[in-house]
Amino acid sequence: MLLKGLTSNELEIEPSDKHLVRLGGQIGIKLFEEFFISLGMNKKQWESIEYTYAGHSSEGIMSMALTQWRKTKLSKLGMPTLKDLTHALRAVNLDSHLICQVFRENTTLFEIEDINLQAIPSDQHLKELSNQIGNCPLQLGIELGLSFTEVDQSLFSFPKDLSGLVEDILKKWKRNSKVKTIHSLMLALERVNAGGIRYLHDLSKKLADANHANIT
């Protein structure tokens, strides 16, 4: 049975980092172990991931588990697909249409047209913002376009410093991204429900006031 809105060819594609993070945010932690095993993994692998990423959010742990599944299947010369994820969801009686959710951009921020939101935040702004964001550094990093490897390096460097970890991820985004605006940052924060959007919105107003003062 095909999912409404997705073709058979689309279901055969390899899930991206964002797909895996977004799916991880859709599945409850209590059902995830069974789902993970339905993907061909085992309990020992799940427990190892839980131990390695203890202290991070359940969504972050599930996301790392999904990327481990993808890596494991590729190492065995298999091809991880969205169809695999769909079948595993059905195996544990979860709605397979959760796969469709990973493609959707549910936001009202696209409707906000403010030239000041196109400004690039300074490093000091990112430092201040890092104190406003909750325990979702992995998901945020992926939504900002970083790879799992880049985020994992930050996790290793800041094992017990959440604000430092988030700041490091934000600076990597600013350094590497082609689109490093306040608005693009707000979109990522909204997607992972991280907090900090109000801070950025207020920042854009302060920048507008400063620009107006300089002109006058």
TrEMBL record:
GO terms for biological process: signal transduction. Transmembrane segments: none annotated. Residues 139-193 form the Death domain. It comes from the Eukaryota. This is Death domain-containing protein. It comes from Mytilus edulis (Blue mussel).
